[in-house]
Amino acid sequence: MHVKKVFVRGRRDRIQCELCEKWFHTGCVKISEYTYKVLDKMTNLHWFCEPCNNGACKLLVNFSRQTREFVRLSRTKKLAKSCVLN
């Protein structure tokens, strides 16, 4: 998580999207001062801007579906092999 405490056009705190790497004023993306402080301290949290978050969600949903289908097909193939061998 990258947060930056600098003055930019009169606003101090900014946060960087981990996908597109653009910087955003916390006020512009509706991150409260408390949330910003938590994000600043946590190393295992991730923040994405709204466009990247929407794209990441779609990507994760598709990946999850493909993974489930791969597991299902792998089990079917193993079952078919064991039937042929017996």
Tell me the layout of helices and strands.
Layout (H helix, E strand, L loop, with lengths): L2 E6 L2 E6 L6 E3 L7 H9 L8 H36 L1
Antiparallel strand pairs: 1-2, 2-3
Q: Could you describe the 3D structure shown?
A:
The chain has 86 residues and is an alpha+beta fold. The protein folds into two domains: 48 residues, Herpes Virus-1; 38 residues. It is 52% helix and 17% strand. It contains two helices and three strands. The chain has a three-stranded antiparallel β-sheet, with helices on one face. A hairpin with a 2-residue loop joins strand 1 and strand 2. The longest helix is centred in the C-terminal third of the chain and has 36 residues. It is elongated, with a radius of gyration of 21 Å. It starts with a strand and ends with a helix.
Quick recap:
This protein is an alpha+beta fold.
Descriptors:
2 domains, alpha+beta, single chain, 2 helices, Herpes Virus-1
What's the total helix number? 2
Mean pLDDT: 77
Separation of the first and last Cα atoms: 54 Å
Share of helix, binned? 40-55%
Largest sheet: 3 strands, antiparallel
Strand content: 15-25%
CATH topology of the largest domain: Herpes Virus-1
Compute the number of structural domains.
2
The side-by-side strand order for the widest beta sheet comes to: 1-2-3
Helix/strand order, N-terminal first:
EEEHH
User: How many strand units?
Assistant: 3
Label the overall shape: elongated
Low-confidence stretches: none
What is the structural class?
alpha+beta
From the alpha carbons, calculate the radius of gyration and give it in angstroms: 21 Å
